[in-house]
Design a protein that fits this description.
- 25% of the residues lie in helices and 21% in strands.
- The chain is built from two helices and four strands, in the order αββαββ.
- The protein is globular and about 40 Å long.
Length: 119
């Protein structure tokens, strides 16, 4: 099963599937759709963090290097402003009781305050 906007290793994790659905239903495009020009329209991508109960949400815009974490400071001012606005929109949307959202230079970090335990 594939869910655009979500890394393959998080597909079975319900709490992170919910993040992808929340962003998509609010009108943000998931990265990985077939008929979207990601050189013009950024897509979100959720990938795991090293710590359980935590994930990162990135904004991806091709071609690579347009505004990636290492190239962000070299990006045109207009792109940096657009990137920052997108990250703030993601953070506002995903902030809920039970999870903490932090805006970082390379995306946002979502931490579940009481992550479910795995069997």
């Amino acid at each position: 099963m594939d869910l655009p906007g979500l890394s393959e290793d998080l597909i079975e994790d319900e709490q992170f599937r919910v993040l992808a659905v929340e962003l998509a239903t609010a009108g943000h495009l998931p990265y990985g759709l077939d008929d979207v020009d990601y050189t013009q329209t950024p897509g979100f991508h959720i990938y795991p963090s090293a710590e359980p109960g935590r994930a990162k949400v990135a904004r991806l815009l091709e071609p690579w290097g347009t505004i990636r974490p290492g190239a962000r400071f070299e990006a045109p001012e207009r792109e940096v402003e657009r990137y920052d606005k997108d990250m703030e929109a993601y953070a506002r949307l995903l902030t809920r009781p039970g999870r903490t959202v932090a805006v970082m230079l390379d995306g946002i970090q979502v931490t579940y305050n009481d992550p479910p335990t795995r069997p």
